[in-house]
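Input (structure):
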């Protein structure tokens, strides 16, 4: 079980979720050319889901089970069918741990 300082840091990240999401979407559109043809609302939705999952993992200390990643797998399939290269999908919009402030401090 995570200690209270980690839980507090995760709570702060949840508080700043909209800022983190906006920053991630902007970075994605600027740095990954393949995403420029994807609707910003779609990118934003994916980023928010990824951020929520990453912050929850930090707070709980539990990595999501593969069965909990079905939505992310589906989004990756959709991006592939939208013509994105696998490299762009992997670099993508994240909303994962690399998009959280480092170091995470309470």
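Output (sequence):
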């Amino acid at each position: 079980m995570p200690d209270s300082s980690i839980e507090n840091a995760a709570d702060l990240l949840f508080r700043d979720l909209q800022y983190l999401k906006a920053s991630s979407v902007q970075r994605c559109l600027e740095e990954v050319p393949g995403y420029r043809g994807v609707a910003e609302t779609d990118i934003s939705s994916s980023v928010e889901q990824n951020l929520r999952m990453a912050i929850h993992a930090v707070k709980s200390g539990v990595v999501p089970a593969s069965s909990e990643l079905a939505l992310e797998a589906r989004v990756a399939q959709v991006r592939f069918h939208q013509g994105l290269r696998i490299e762009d999908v992997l670099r993508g919009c994240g909303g994962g741990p690399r998009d959280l402030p480092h170091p995470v401090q309470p």
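Notes: The radius of gyration is 14 Å. The chain is about 60% helix and 0% strand.
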